[in-house]
Amino acid sequence: MVDPDVDSKVEEILKRLVSLPSSDFRGYWTPQKAINEPDASRLASELNEASFVEFKRISYPDLVRQALYPDDYVDAIENFIDWHNDLLQQIHGHLKTFPDEEGKYDRIERELPTQSPAHWAVSQSLHLVRSNHPPADVLSPPNLEFILGPLRALPRLNAVEILEQHAVLEVRFRRSYLYAHDIDWTRRFRTNVNLFTRVTKTPAQDLADQLTDSDLTVFRSLSPQSVIDEDVRFQQLNCRWDRQCLAISEFLIAHRHLIHKAMDICQLLREMRNFNSLFAFLQALRESSCDESNWQGLFDLINPTRNYAFYRKIKQEAPCVPFLPPHITQLKRCQEKGLSEIFVFLGYRPGNLAQAQSLQKPEDSSNRKQLSLTPWTPWTLGDLISCFPTARRPYSQQ
């Protein structure tokens, strides 16, 4: 249900966001700079960069205000639009004075990212010159709908939830745009914060169980051939891990009080031998600059020395849900051993915690999901292929 006072609280909520001040730098580009430069690609790059510098002057709270109140331009966004309108007029005047430059600006237009504000300014200028219309006839200014649209579509929650949500999204905004070297003007801003919501509302043990169930489902969709070929399914698994790691680090930076709960989840994932999600949490914790001194045993796992030698030694103790990168490196060195290391999750089974005394504290004896630590031997390539009868054998086995 919508809080009737939400709109009246928006300004107070935005004031509480820990927002970095917008950039003081101004974008600078004029047609005069381009007169003696024949390289259209270089000119397009410089123009797009100048436009991007202007974009960085807009803060996240500015965008939220604009999304909530679309009829009233926020100063920073109005300045951004005015800068591009001035650019349009400068290019239009330049092309009227030097019509032989029109071919160069055609090439610049083709080099600029489609739907970028700079592309809008150049394409509108060319259109107005060719149709013999004045700049006042421009129908619509460049817009930031790729960010404003998703922000406008956010559900209206209570004031506390709105503040928590926007704190996470502001971190994502800074990473995606302000700290980036370039910007994709067509990619819509992601506003999904489901993992943050799950971490805040779900008990640590339940969340560790859910993450492990989800990881196992994804890993079981792999075949040895998908790993060897690094096919679409394999790439999706890697992208899924990257997104998970980013999402965790975003909410840990925005909400430092969740670091302790994140460490509790890490301990549970370690006990359950789910190294896939464990590594995502540990990497995110490191990126959020948490104090690692009290958790050195866990952080040793993500030490990349000798292809994550410490982790690979621990992993050999029993079946697990693996962290892929070191095993892919091993796969390239020795196909059979690499595949065997990846597919150890096939031996992962729920069991009783009493079977894993060496991995857990006595006081934690409860019915947690845990692998059965019965004796096992590493999978051979033949064992793996037999588990996936529809998979093609590697060329070395044909």
TrEMBL record:
Pfam families: RasGEF (PF00617)
Classification via Gene3D superfamilies: Ras guanine-nucleotide exchange factors catalytic domain
Transmembrane segments: none
Coiled coil regions in record: none
Name by which UniProt lists this protein: Ras-GEF domain-containing protein
Keywords: Guanine-nucleotide releasing factor
Domain annotation Ras-GEF: ranges: 207-337
